[in-house]
């Protein structure tokens, strides 16, 4: 009987902790790893996956979707549902972006994202402007490894 | 020394207050998780889904599980975050999945010039049931699948229209 009771207590605590964790991660902030080098040198300046940066993503920006040029955001991929990318916003709705061949206007409700490492970045130059509704959070600072802890400009 | 006695008196009350607040906090977190990940009720209004949904507003139950597993199919009524205004949610029907070819009439009031599109990878084509009064994929193009946030299950208000949606 003691074991059963213990198990039940542990399950209850785990369930409560999980629910609180999910709520905080959805509404407040969460920590995510950065994979790949499309945002070098801002994130992952070396191509060594043991030293991947972990960043703090804040979710308060999702209340009214007001972003500024230069924000680094996490968004769901428009082509591969389930994937998430981290890139920088370089164009807000209504602005004109000059890509390789022509000048494109960013439609209402969309934004143009690009990686800092233009050579190896899959971004709006490939899949076009993305709806703001795909954005899942804004990166505010690097939290790991400790020597790279910093706020993102 | 008197304030020490006061502190002791209030310690019991503070502990009880903390317990009550944490119960409320846990309950609110539970509501958030249910509303976001399992099932929620939404008030929908507007003419774009007539005759399926009423003009003056219905309350529908929407579930948030199917889209996470990629199980949105043709003909489903889905809640989608609007690609033109990310603070708004729109309710439309999925009429095309990725790779499908669709043709639609550019202006349903005038003639039958029809445009043919292929839905790109990772996108869906959404359309309101009321072709004459709906801004949907015919206006803003196919929308990424990740913008879908829920699938309508059944209508709960007004009571005489209670039931699943077709």
Automatic annotation (TrEMBL), chain A:
It is found in: Mitochondrion inner membrane. It is a single-pass membrane protein. InterPro entries: IMP2, LexA/Signal_pep-like_sf, Pept_S26A_signal_pept_1, Peptidase_S26. Keywords: Hydrolase, Membrane, Mitochondrion, Mitochondrion inner membrane, Protease, Transmembrane, Transmembrane helix. Pfam families: Peptidase_S26. Residues 10-105 form the Peptidase S26 domain. CDD domains: S26_SPase_I (cd06530). Gene3D superfamilies: Umud Fragment, subunit A (2.10.109.10). The keyword Heme does not apply. SUPFAM superfamilies: LexA/Signal peptidase (SSF51306). Belongs to the peptidase S26 family. IMP2 subfamily. PANTHER family: MITOCHONDRIAL INNER MEMBRANE PROTEASE SUBUNIT 2. This is Mitochondrial inner membrane protease subunit 2. It comes from Brassica cretica (Mustard).
TrEMBL record, chain B:
Keywords: Hydrolase, Membrane, Mitochondrion, Mitochondrion inner membrane. It is found in: Mitochondrion inner membrane. SUPFAM superfamilies: LexA/Signal peptidase (SSF51306). InterPro entries: LexA/Signal_pep-like_sf, Mito_IMP1_subunit, Pept_S26A_signal_pept_1, Pept_S26A_signal_pept_1_CS, Peptidase_S26. Residues 21-110, 118-157 form the Peptidase S26 domain. Belongs to the peptidase S26 family. IMP1 subfamily. PANTHER family: MITOCHONDRIAL INNER MEMBRANE PROTEASE SUBUNIT 1, PROTEASE FAMILY S26 MITOCHONDRIAL INNER MEMBRANE PROTEASE-RELATED. This is Peptidase S26 domain-containing protein. It comes from Brassica cretica.
């Amino acid at each position: 009987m003691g074991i059963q009771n213990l198990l039940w207590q542990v399950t209850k605590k785990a369930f409560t902790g999980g629910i609180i964790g999910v709520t905080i991660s959805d509404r407040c902030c969460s920590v995510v790893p950065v994979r790949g080098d499309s945002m070098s040198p801002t994130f992952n300046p070396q191509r060594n996956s043991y030293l991947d940066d972990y960043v703090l993503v804040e979710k308060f920006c999702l209340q009214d979707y007001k972003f500024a040029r230069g924000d680094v955001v996490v968004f769901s991929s428009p082509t591969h549902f389930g994937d998430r990318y981290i890139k920088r916003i370089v164009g807000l709705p209504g602005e004109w972006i000059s890509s390789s061949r022509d000048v494109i206007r960013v439609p209402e409700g969309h934004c143009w994202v690009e990686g800092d490492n233009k050579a190896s970045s899959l971004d709006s130059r490939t899949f076009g402007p993305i709806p703001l509704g795909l954005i899942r959070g804004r990166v505010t600072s690097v939290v790991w490894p400790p020597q790279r802890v910093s706020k993102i400009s | 020394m008197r304030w020490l006695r006061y502190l002791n008196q209030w310690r019991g009350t503070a502990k009880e207050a903390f317990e009550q607040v944490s119960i409320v906090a846990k309950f609110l977190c539970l509501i958030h998780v249910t509303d976001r990940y399992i099932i929620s009720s939404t008030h929908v209004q507007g003419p774009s889904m007539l005759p399926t949904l009423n003009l003056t507003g219905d309350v529908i139950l929407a579930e948030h599980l199917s889209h996470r597993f990629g199980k949105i199919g043709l003909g489903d009524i889905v809640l989608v975050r609007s690609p033109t205004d990310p603070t708004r949610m729109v309710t439309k029907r999925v009429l095309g999945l990725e790779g499908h070819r669709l043709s639609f009439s550019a202006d349903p009031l005038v003639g039958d010039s029809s445009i043919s599109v292929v839905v790109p990878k990772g996108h869906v084509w959404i359309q309101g049931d009321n072709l004459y009064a709906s801004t949907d994929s015919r206006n803003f193009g196919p929308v990424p699948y990740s913008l879908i946030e829920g699938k309508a299950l059944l209508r709960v208000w007004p009571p005489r229209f209670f039931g699943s949606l077709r």
